[in-house]
Amino acid sequence: MSLPVVKTLADCTDFYKTVEPYLPQLYDLSQHVFQDTTNLQALKVLYISTNPLVSALAFSLFLAPIFLVVSEVNKNYSQVDRCWSILPTIYNAHYALYAHASGLPTRRLDVLLLFSFIWSTRLTYNYWRKGGYSVGSEDYRWNVLREHISPPLFFVFNVTFISLAQSFLLFLITTPTYILLLAAKKTVASYPIGDVIFSRGLVALVFLAYYADGQQWSYQNAKKEYQKTANVPEGFQQEDLDRGFNTTGLFAYSRHPNFAAEQAVWVTLYGWSCWVTQSFYNYSIVGVIGYLILFQGSTWFTEIISKKKYPEYEEYQRRVGMFLPRLPGGPPGDFSDKRNPKATSSE
To answer: Computed over its alpha carbons, how large is the radius of gyration of the chain?
Structure first.
């Protein structure tokens, strides 16, 4: 049996009942896949007979050496970045497909998959328009990091973190979906108000991130035009463009509003799994914590670079919270108190 027997909703969150007994399937899975590569019917049977969390885990581990080899051959370490917006939706689609194939109620998982597709579309589009899929494109932070550590140490970092840990993390953040799949065996087929709130909340967070992306995109394009032509584009202030980083709109309240919304997405999905199973926490919190730690670390590193590049960035840090807005009463985050009242914009 590939799915555990769950007698209560609480059982759906029990790691030792729903995950640990199926981990041994991982050991022989690759052998069975290679043996049945040309036998479609056998592959279908193997898919159904393998616990869906285990097969998702196996896929994440399968990708790690591919990311490693491709990155080392090309000396480009953004291979996981190119798949970041796609892999979680693949995992969510896998759980939804498995539920359909197993005859379980799927409305909740179908709605989640639709949201996941919207999430992927927004993130993929933003990555594409910034040139992330262009040949040779690489996250500038990897190059900065390579300047500070030796090649052997960076290789170890690539093996353990860039290629393996990040691929594993993209699997982990979708483990609440596995819990929702199991809970479908014990919940009614209707769609309660809680599901509506969580699903619409997730979509709202994606649109918040999309709005922040748009503000950042507009600012960066305006800055490039200003630096090229010395003309201030319509709707922008010269002081803001001279500063070099965006402090207007959502960025007057959060230094990284798109990052904040992105993290909130996966916290909300985790919360959804807790609500459905009537529990205060479950083992899938590991993925959420890992995701939050990753964003804390990567944003901290990004801001070290920003402080060296932009003289006023340290002041911006004092005025505006990294992710969450500060309590009212401090100086304005958009630096309007320092703006020259005689300056004119092209509005």
So the answer is: 23
Other beta carbons less than 10 A from residue 274's beta carbon: 17
**Residue pair 237/345 in contact by the 8 Å Cβ criterion:** yes
> Measuring CA to CA, how many Å separate 306 from each of 151, 216, 244, 339?
24, 15, 10, 21
43 near 213, Cβ under 8 Å?
A: no
Are residues 157 and 141 in contact, defined by beta-carbon separation less than 8 angstroms? no
pLDDT digits (tens, 9 = 90+) for 148-207: 999 999 999 999 999 999 999 999 999 999 999 999 988 766 778 999 999 999 999 999
Q: Where are the alpha helices (DSSP H) in the chain?
A: 15-18, 25-35, 40-49, 52-74, 79-83, 87-101, 107-129, 140-146, 151-157, 166-172, 175-183, 193-229, 238-243, 257-276, 285-309, 313-319
Please, which pLDDT band fits residue 323 given cuts at 50, 70 and 90?
Answer: very high
| Amino acid making up residue 3 | L
Higher-confidence position of 3 and 346: 3
Question: Distances from the Cα of 210 to the Cαs of 28, 205, 215, 272, in angstroms?
Answer: 42, 9, 9, 22
